[in-house]
């Protein structure tokens, strides 16, 4: 959700609309909150040995080195978590997994889950027609921006995950209410995970509007043209943000994909169907391996972020993961950082998959 460069914010800022949950080599979408929240020091590396009779054994020392290399990308703001389960054992490998960082659109998984819970309870329907128009348009909406009329809730949820469409996100979030999503997050024990009231309220707040204010599409258009309603704010803050830890995101996928938060099998099936549509999954999980998840990226006022969380399905194991990096730098740092980030994510997941499948690790 890139909005402006530091030197531009001082005079006439240029704000770029961002897709809060797409991994894109030309954009990122996360924040720098050093002015509001202090990041814990890195160095909390942990790993355990998988005791499994399936396939080849996982080289823990090599995996540990790869995780340390991932953490070294941004020594004060990178974290990773890999949790491997085979039905008998649960093994965790991590680096700085409890470090709260901006994760961007990765939080959209919670909105999807709560919406489906409302459908499951009979309070909502995926067939319902939901309004689309300037009242809900939000930056970085490749599917629904500038469209007016109605579309099904199912199409809204798919656009939110498959294309990280922020207009779709706000339609879904406005329909169920952000407090219900926060209640789900709380019930899951995710104490450090936070979501905004909507992406448009988040954009408005970061651009300097008062807390809780939605400046409307006209106001957002002005922001994108370079006119902010107030001094720009840090993406990580105490009011409107998208923050979590690698440990919490990993545990979320462990439990939600096991059906813990749904009453009906068909609800879990629908959650999995839509979660499998996320564009970041085929970018990182080895070809022909099933995966679920959601990614996020942001550029804002010199702050950048990439994040990806989800689950990789192997024949005898479920591999839950989260990889997040936040950093500060100019826009020129984004393509190189993205290339390195995605390469390391792929490498880590291929290392784990290669212990069961005939994959070359590269």
Structure overview:
The protein is of the alpha+beta class and 362 residues long. The protein has a single domain, classed as DD-peptidase/beta-lactamase superfamily (Beta-lactamase, 3-Layer(aba) Sandwich), CATH 3.40.710. 35% of the residues lie in helices and 17% in strands. It contains twelve helices and ten strands. A six-stranded antiparallel sheet has the order 1-3-2-10-9-8, with helices on both faces. It has a two-stranded antiparallel ribbon with strand order 4-7. A hairpin with a 4-residue loop joins strand 2 and strand 3. Helix 2 packs antiparallel against helix 12. The chain is globular, with a radius of gyration of 19 Å. The N terminus is likely disordered.
Helix content: 25-40%
Radius of gyration: 19 Å
How many β-strands, per DSSP?
10
User: In whole angstroms, how far apart are the ends?
Assistant: 31 Å
Largest sheet data: 6 strands, antiparallel
Flag low-confidence runs: 1-56
Q: Determine the CATH superfamily.
A: DD-peptidase/beta-lactamase superfamily
Q: Which structural class is indicated by helix and strand composition?
A: alpha+beta
Q: Give me the strand/helix succession.
A: HEHEEEHEEHHHHHEHHHEEEH
Strand residue percentage: 15-25%
The shape, in one word, is: globular
CATH topology (level 3) name: Beta-lactamase
Shape-level CATH architecture? 3-Layer(aba) Sandwich
Widest beta sheet: strand line-up: 1-3-2-10-9-8
Can you identify the CATH class? Answer: Alpha Beta
Number of domain modules: 1
| Number of DSSP helical runs | 12
């Amino acid at each position: 959700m890139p909005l402006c460069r530091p030197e531009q914010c001082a005079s006439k800022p240029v704000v770029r609309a961002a897709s809060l949950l797409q991994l894109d080599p030309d954009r990122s979408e996360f924040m720098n909150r050093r002015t509001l929240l202090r990041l814990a020091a890195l160095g909390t590396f942990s790993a355990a040995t998988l005791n499994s009779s399936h396939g080849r054994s996982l080289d823990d020392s090599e995996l540990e080195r790869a995780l340390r290399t991932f953490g070294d990308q941004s020594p004060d703001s990178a974290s990773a978590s890999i949790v491997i389960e085979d039905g008998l054992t649960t093994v965790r490998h991590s680096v700085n997994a409890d470090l709260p960082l901006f994760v961007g659109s990765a939080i959209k998984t919670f909105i999807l889950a709560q919406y489906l819970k409302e459908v499951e309870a009979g309070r909502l329907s995926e067939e319902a027609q939901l309004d689309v128009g300037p009242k809900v348009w939000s930056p970085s909406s490749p599917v629904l921006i500038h469209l007016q009329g109605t579309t099904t809730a199912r199409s809204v949820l798919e656009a939110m995950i498959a294309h990280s469409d922020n207009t779709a996100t706000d339609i879904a979030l406005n329909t169920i209410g952000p407090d219900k999503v926060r209640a789900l997050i709380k019930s899951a024990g995710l104490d450090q995970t936070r979501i905004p009231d909507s992406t448009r309220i988040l954009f408005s707040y970061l651009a300097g509007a008062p807390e809780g204010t939605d400046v409307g599409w006209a106001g957002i258009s002005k922001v994108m043209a370079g006119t902010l309603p107030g001094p720009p704010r840090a993406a990580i803050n105490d009011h409107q943000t998208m923050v979590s830890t690698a440990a919490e995101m990993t545990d979320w996928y462990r439990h939600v994909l096991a059906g813990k938060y749904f009453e009906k099998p068909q609800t879990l099936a629908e959650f999995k169907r839509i979660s499998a549509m996320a564009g970041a999954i085929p970018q990182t999980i080895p070809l022909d391996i099933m995966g679920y998840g959601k990614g996020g990226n942001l550029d804002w006022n010199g702050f950048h972020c990439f994040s990806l969380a989800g689950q990789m399905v192997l024949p005898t194991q479920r591999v839950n993961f989260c990889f997040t990096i936040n950093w500060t730098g100019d826009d020129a740092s984004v393509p190189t950082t993205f290339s390195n980030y995605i390469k390391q994510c792929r490498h880590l997941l291929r290392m784990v998959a290669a212990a069961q499948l005939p994959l070359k690790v590269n």
